[in-house]
């Protein structure tokens, strides 16, 4: 599985979308419903960054085929503003984005990566199945807890292409499923070289597309949570799929398909 997660809903998303669509990659775009159409300038270290957010109209016109996800109403740090304000940031953002897109939001990215147990609890109660942090694992393991989803790396990580090579061509232990999750902000593509980093990554992954599922964060977390609901007999000969999702698993090197509601007998 390869998935992308891009934050803040800025106008450079539109150029990123063209590139993603060209290579067949899928992305989750994490938007702040209360900031759509606004412009701001902020300072990060020595860099003064001006950002222009997409408008509500651009959201409905340009993101088809990808996922719209929550990122808090005004991008407040949910770990630091108290429970009532955090509830409002989460719920009102979700309500507005759901009304705008006509979809049901299932995934979230934590503003500033800030969270604690209570924030996770609020997200779960709001109906979110996953929330992404900004902690890089430099690994491909599937998160144990999708409400604390640490991605593989940021796109500007010095190890990005090394990780891509390992993901596509490295030795795989015990045929474990691998998840490569990259995150960032499209306003960081502020030079031709920065765009080339993403284009090189996508072109390389697309050249291995026969073994990669290009999916949004929501598709990945929904599939894995359904997969984790499989029921097994003690001797391992029967596996029941209680979900509505067709699930796949490999047993002794043989790939099996289990349709929703069916029992596989080995
Ligand atoms: Zn953000």
Describe the structure.
The relative contact order is 0.15. The chain is globular. The protein is built from seven helices and 14 strands. It folds into two domains: 2-224, TIM Barrel (Alpha-Beta Barrel); 231-265, no CATH class. A five-stranded parallel β-sheet has the order 5-2-1-9-8, with helices on both faces. It is of the alpha/beta class and 266 residues long. The two termini are 26 Å apart. Helix 3 (83-101) packs parallel to helix 4 (117-125). The chain has helices spanning 12-23, 56-62, 83-101, 117-125, 160-169, 192-206, 217-227; strands spanning 2-7, 27-31, 39-44, 47-52, 67-70, 107-109, 130-132, 153-154, 180-184, 231-232, 238-240, 247-251, 254-258, 263-265. The longest helix has 19 residues, at 83-101.
Number of contiguous helices:
7
Order of helices and strands: EHEEEHEHEHEEHEHHEEEEE
Structural class: alpha/beta
CATH superfamily of the largest domain: Glycoside hydrolase/deacetylase
Q: What is the total tally of β strands?
A: 14
Number of domains: 2
For the report, how would you describe the main beta sheet?
A: 5 strands, parallel
Distance between the termini: 26 Å
What is the quaternary state of this protein? single chain
* Spatial strand sequence of the major β-sheet: 5-2-1-9-8
CATH secondary-structure class of the largest domain: Alpha Beta
By CATH, the topology of the largest domain is TIM Barrel
């Amino acid at each position: 599985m390869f998935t992308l997660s891009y934050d803040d809903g800025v106008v450079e998303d539109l150029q990123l979308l063209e590139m993603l669509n060209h290579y067949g990659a899928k992305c989750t775009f994490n938007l702040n419903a209360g900031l759509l159409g606004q412009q701001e300038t902020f300072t990060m270290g020595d860099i003064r960054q001006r950002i222009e957010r997409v408008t509500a109209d651009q959201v409905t016109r340009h993101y088809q085929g990808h996922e719209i996800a929550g990122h808090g109403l005004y991008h407040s740090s949910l770990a630091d503003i108290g429970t009532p304000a955090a509830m409002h940031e989460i719920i009102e953002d979700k309500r507005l984005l759901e009304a705008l897109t006509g979809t049901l939001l299932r995934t979230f990215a934590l503003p500033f990566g800030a969270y604690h147990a209570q924030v996770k609890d609020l997200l779960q109660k709001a109906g979110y199945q996953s929330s992404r942090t900004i902690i890089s694992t430099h690994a491909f393991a599937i998160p144990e807890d999708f409400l604390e989803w640490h991605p593989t790396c940021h796109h500007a990580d010095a190890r990005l292409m090394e990780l891509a090579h390992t993901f596509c061509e490295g030795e795989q232990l015990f045929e474990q499923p691998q998840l490569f999750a990259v995150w960032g902000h499209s306003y960081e593509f502020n030079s031709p070289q920065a765009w080339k980093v993403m284009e090189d990554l996508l072109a390389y992954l697309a050249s291995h597309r026969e073994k990669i599922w290009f999916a949004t964060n929501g598709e990945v977390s929904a599939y894995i949570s359904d997969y984790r609901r499989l029921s097994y007999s003690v001797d391992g000969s029967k596996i029941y799929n209680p979900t509505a999702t067709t699930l796949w698993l490999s047993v002794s090197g043989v790939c099996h398909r289990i349709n929703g509601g069916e029992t596989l007998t080995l």
